[in-house]
Amino acid sequence: MTKVKIIETRILSDNWYTLKKITFDYRRNDGTTERQSREAYDRGNGATILLYNQEKNTVILTRQFRMPTFVNGNPDGLLIEACAGLLDTDQPEECIRRETEEETGYRIEQVEKVFEAYMSPGSVTEILHFFIAAYTPKMKVAVGGGVAEEQEHIEVLELDFGHALGLIKTGEIKDAKTIMLLQHIQIAGVLKSR
Ligand SMILES: Nc1nc2c(ncn2[C@@H]2O[C@H](COP(=O)(O)OP(=O)(O)O[C@H]3O[C@H](CO)[C@@H](O)[C@H](O)[C@@H]3O)[C@@H](O)[C@H]2O)c(=O)[nH]1
Ligand SMILES: [Mg+2]
């Protein structure tokens, strides 16, 4: 028998995305039931990818302005990130191919799914699908930079892998999905750390 019974779902904000307040009864292991309320921000699910080149021992990352980080201590609001996007109605692999071309300008071939993760499970509903893919200079078909109509101004960075790992240590890379993917590439031995 399910331990959760939703009593009420109230929309607190329905602007760009949706913020809901959910009141529910939760049955504890001792059999007693407790009423709780939790807010959940639903901005859909997403996909992210780390592009790597084994000959050059490099990765492709992006840099863009992220307002939520600016209001929480990031002095210029710029964040170095693995390419990522929201699924909308796409399947994760379809989404990440499209986002890779829009944001980085690379048209990739094989992609490998590595894991899925809830990124902020106490407050955000989102599950993120993680991918890696090899890239070569020949796959660069456009400048990238994001979709102009969506006011995306994304800088594309090609970094030595050891240098990118060093940026985690110095705090210049502070984005969870990016750290997870760089460490995955290191643990799996896809690229050399020095
Ligand atoms: N007008 C408006 N635009 C918004 C708002 N919030 C986001 N956008 C715009 O919506 C677009 C979403 O771009 P995507 O590339 O699809 O998503 P993303 O923001 O890069 O999100 C990815 O990274 C996130 C952070 O790690 C992930 O949480 C997410 O799953 C995804 O992978 C961007 O142009 C962004 O500026 C808003 O409140 N108002
Ligand atoms: Mg994006």
TrEMBL record:
Q: Answer whether the UniProt record assigns the keyword Hydrolase to this protein.
A: yes
Indicate whether Hydrolase appears among the record's keywords.
yes
* InterPro entries named among the record's database cross-references: NDP_pyrophosphatase, NUDIX_hydrolase-like_dom_sf, NUDIX_hydrolase_dom
User: Which stretches are annotated as coiled coil?
Assistant: none
Annotated CDD domains: NUDIX_GDPMK (cd24157)
- GO molecular function ontology, one term from the record: hydrolase activity
Q: Which residues form the Nudix hydrolase domain?
A: 42-181
Keywords, A to Z, come to: Hydrolase
Q: Give the quaternary structure.
A: Homodimer.
Instruction: Indicate the family of this protein.
Output: Belongs to the Nudix hydrolase family. NudK subfamily.
UniProt cross-references to NCBIfam families, sorted A to Z:
nudix-type nucleoside diphosphatase, YffH/AdpP family (TIGR00052), PRK15009.1 (NF011585)
| Protein's name in the database | GDP-mannose pyrophosphatase
This protein's species is Sphingobacterium suaedae
Give the classification, highest ranks. Bacteria, Pseudomonadati, Bacteroidota, Sphingobacteriia, Sphingobacteriales
Gene name as annotated: nudK
